[in-house]
Amino acid sequence: GLTFGVFLALVCDVLDGRKPASMRQDMVLLPVDPNGTPKRYWDLLILILLVYCIFSVPFQLAFDNSSGPFAWTPFSVFTLAVDCIFMADILVNCVTSFTDEDGATVTDLRRAAAHYARTWCVWDIAGSVPFDTIMRLVSDSSDQSQDQSRSLRAIKAIRALKLIKAAKLAAVLQGIERNEVFANLRTSIRVFKSMLILVSSAHFLGCGFLLLTQLGGAEDEGGTNWLEHYSPGASERSVEFQYVIALYWAIVSVSTMGYGDVLPVTHAERIFAVCVAVSGAVVFSFCMSNIAAVMAASDGVGTRFEKFLKRSMDHCALRKLPRGLVSDVRQHLYSNMRRCGIQADEEALLRGLSGPLQRDVWAEIYRRAEVSRSLSHRSRLARAGLARSAGRDTGGP
């Protein structure tokens, strides 16, 4: 009969196929698996901080005019913490495995570090190390009679290095998009990527337009600039007021609407406006075409499914199947194929993979088939033993 020991042995046999591999994956710390759960959530944290940086750095360039000694404020402490996380990300990337040109996973730490040094290492260091904070800390002990305007320009130029992190944002988003954990969010991630490019471009250009009002010689013969021309006395008003005007101008320019109520009045502002008009048209067209392509691809999957469902229902009608069975078939198609999409041919899919990946996939399929076959055989034996035990308890044959 089916005893408790037999049941435990059955469960252990089923779990034996995957327990050692999962335990080894959890126990191995180095090299870092780029598809592992810890790395996925680490990349998500880096993504959030990168989005924060591409919005905060241009804002600081446009509005932060402090060039004196470094002050320990909650904002400065938070900024230093963000920089420390980015520097920790450099160390993590040095020990993260990667996929080479042949599709094989490289786990050697030296090769992983060399690969990272050839790709993102220099750019990450330039955008992560807080050179502007270091410069202000060093200036605490220097001569306080130094030229404040020159110091301010130097700090802003060094701070602009952090904008290099914006280039890393696309790579991080691409890595998150490829992860299985976020597979159901790929369409949303692609739409978010296009909207982020559009909004961040408008934010960056608006802050740049405001920065022009602070540069030397940024006023015309009448002693005014675009901000004062639009709203006299605006330079003395709040930061929020100035930023909203600049962001409004940038969005109108990027979206190619161009209402014309905010106008450049100096030569430098006109040159900047021309560059914004040209680049804005490209950015807006690129983002809108990407969103349209994502929506069309998503709708294409639904259209193919509806065609397949109609053929299936026509076949059921041709065979005059019972209404209840037809309902079960429709429910099965909606719950499985609608969620997973139309399944591609397995052999064609595997032919597109590299040799090592093909072997790994076939080995996993074979292992699961063996476990399933063993489970089915043991289940039949267990049911037979349970039936015999029930027959003896009831006095049956």
Question: Would you kindly provide a brief summary of this structure?
Answer:
About 3% of the residues have low confidence. The protein is 72% helix and 1% strand. A hairpin with a 5-residue loop joins strand 1 and strand 2.
Describe this structure in words.
The chain is mainly α. The protein has three domains: 73 residues; 148 residues, no CATH class; 158 residues, Helix Hairpins, CATH 1.10.287. It has a two-stranded antiparallel ribbon with strand order 1-2. A hairpin with a 5-residue loop joins strand 1 and strand 2. The longest helix is centred in the last third of the chain and has 52 residues. It is flat, with a radius of gyration of 31 Å. The two termini are 15 Å apart. InterPro entries: Ion_trans_dom, K_chnl_volt-dep_EAG/ELK/ERG, KCNH_animal-type. This is Ion transport domain-containing protein. It comes from Cryptomonas curvata. It is found in: Membrane. It is a multi-pass membrane protein.
**Extended strand count:** 2
Number of helices: 16
Which CATH architecture of the largest domain would you pick?
Orthogonal Bundle
The secondary structure category is mainly alpha
Main sheet makeup: 2 strands, antiparallel
